[in-house]
Design brief:
The protein is 44% helix and 8% strand. With 80 residues, the protein is mainly α. The chain has a domain at 33-80. A two-stranded antiparallel ribbon has the order 1-2. A hairpin with a 5-residue loop joins β1 (11-13) and β2 (19-21). It is flat and about 50 Å long.
């Protein structure tokens, strides 16, 4: 009798109730390294944005991404 191969992926359920494989998460071997002081600068800016928003939780990623954009723009403008 043939045997079934099993996979190690977890199955998730869609809104219609059908099982589908969960997407595989790809991990980067060498994550991107920020220039010295950049992480701290973005962190401070994200904190400022959090305070400006009234210290509401739940938007940490959005604050970080907006802070990255602001800091990168400041760096770009200072090099012109």
């Amino acid at each position: 009798m043939p045997t079934r191969k099993t996979t190690t992926r977890k199955k998730t359920t869609s809104a219609k109730g059908k099982a589908r494989p969960a997407p595989a998460i790809r991990r980067t071997e060498n994550p991107i390294e920020l220039p010295e002081g950049m992480w701290e600068r973005i962190s401070r800016k994200a904190y400022e944005l959090w305070e400006q928003r009234g210290r509401q939780d739940g938007n940490a990623l959005q604050d970080w991404l907006e802070a990255e954009e602001i800091v990168m723009e400041e760096i770009h403008e200072s090099r012109e």
